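Thread: Newbie trying to understand structure tokens

Hi all, I'm a second-year student working on a class project, and my supervisor (Dr. K.) asked me to get a predicted structure for one chain before our next meeting. I've only ever worked with sequences, so writing a 3D structure as a token string is new to me. If someone could post the tokens and maybe explain what I'm looking at, I'd be very grateful. Here's the chain:
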Amino acid sequence: MHQWDLSPFTVTPAASLLARCVSRDILSQEEIDSASSRLSPVFSNHLHEAEQRIRTRRRLDQLQLEMDLLKMEKKSADVTHSFYLSRRFQMLQMFCSHLQDLLKEQNSLRQRLMKPLGRTNLPVHAHLQRFVVDVVKMLLDFIETLEEKLTVVRCSPTAIDRLAQLNTSLTQLLAHVADVESLSNQVLQRREVHSSKQSDSSTG
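---
Reply by user tm_fold:
Sure, no problem. This is what the structure looks like when written as tokens:
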């Protein structure tokens, strides 16, 4: 007979944990039964209070968010509210109608407004317009390259100074390395002398 035939009911991890708590007298069977019979899923007053605090905190966050939204809506009411938008739209319509009446009366003003400000054609022949565009592109590239060159020229004194500082630091580092090497040689020599003295005293 298989093992699962002997135990028709499977034990969940939660049930095994509760059984272990009951066996160690951490919880009693009556507390578990009373907790399972209540609608609240908590097992103690501390958990119930913590749950209440969490719910209260969520409610406060929700109210704070609603208050922020109301403040934002109040701040932008003159832009987004339909009442103010309708008033502005009416004023714009009145202005447009007044402008149309004015243009009907002033024929010369209407002709001046209808006339384009710039010329319709470039003052260059059609077969030369492509070269004008190429020259403009070359001019823009030249300006960009000139700015880069000027930046390099401005930064060159600082680069020379930094290179000199780097050479000075390298010289100081080499001097420190030489000092460390001499000190290490002295330590090794003293260690050899000390070890030779100890060997002579042990043989004597």
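A couple of things are worth pointing out once you decode it. The helical segments are 3-6, 13-23, 29-37, 45-75, 77-80, 82-105, 107-114, 129-203. Residues 129-203 form the longest helix (75 residues). Feel free to ask follow-ups in this thread.
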